[in-house]
Here is the input.
Amino acid sequence: MSLYYDLHTHTYHSDGLLAPRELLREAQASGIRGIALTDHDVTSGLDEASRSARDFGVELIPGVELSVSWSGQTLHILGLRIEPGNPALQAGLARVQESRRLRARAMGERLARHGIEGAYEGALRHSRGIIVGRTHFARYLVEQGHAKDLRHAFTRYLRKGAHGYVATQWPGLDEAVTWIVAAGGLAVIAHPARYHLTAGALRRLIDEFKAAGGLGIEVVSGSHSPEDVERFALLAQEYALLASAGSDYHGPGETRTAVGRLAALPSGCVPVWSAWTA
Here is the structure.
């Protein structure tokens, strides 16, 4: 099945490296029809992205990636074709942004107690948006020689149980999906293979997600193997979920999949973009 859209990307408004205009320029160069900007828990980059999409002749799908607490772990839910100014969505995002600010300060304090001074200030310097996330801390740790690359920084300092990890209670699955639906959007489970769920837990997640109003699942992802793609294609068909595709692009050198350079959706999948191109 031909791939027309990349529906999972980031800019410096969350934890990406590029400005929205730079991202849209890369989308144009890739030859894809459209792109979704899905920054983590913010929509502040969408105005610039919309203007740039018109300049470059690329369709912009307004989006967001919401952090969600479910069954003791953090999941991510994409909202596609949202109305960014929706009051319910923005009120929810404001809550999450405050949680992120508190977490970032706590992470800096934890790292300082383990001999890494200035981590919060360093992460803040790497952040050009309104939130500070673990990726910004990872960039600081690499810059200061505490880790050889971002993966090493996460493994040694920022993963669950590590010195810099701070647990956070994000909104629940029902709540996050409700915000997306209230904003006129379509909710999609992002990169499901990354959660390492048992088969039973995955099916429970999908059941609860659909009951809340969720409609899609990311089948093709920059972090999915070919086996993952086949597995989630079958689940999408079994549960009558729309199949999405996204690179999860964060910028040059930080993502193994470039904008729009994705495998095609497997045969039998109903693409999520069919919901708005019919």
In short: The domain at 102-158 is CATH 1.10.150.650 (DNA polymerase; domain 1).
